[in-house]
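Feature request, filed as a ticket because there's no other form

It would be nice if the structure record came with a short human-readable summary line next to the tokens. Right now we just get the raw output. Example of a typical job, pasted below so the devs can see what we mean:
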Amino acid sequence: MALKIRRGDTVQVMSGKDSGKTGRVLRVDPKKNRLFVEGLNIVKRHQRPRSLKDTQRGGKVGGVIEKEGPIHVSNVMIVDPR
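Raw output as currently delivered:
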């Protein structure tokens, strides 16, 4: 079954810790029926720093990084742009 929600759509979360909040869809994973919404379902990931040379050049620095986690499609609703 194809998903009706696409990247760039505005959705509202209906259940979970971010229920009632709205955001823009960043990424869609149709095989797992999940999507990533901008600024919602924030999870913390511990990332190991890259080599010292890379961090001095402006590469990725390690530490605790916050990013969006996946939300199941059944927990969101498309918001009408009008």
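Something like this underneath would help us a lot:
The chain is about 5% helix and 40% strand.
The CA atoms of residues 1 and 50 lie 40 Å apart.
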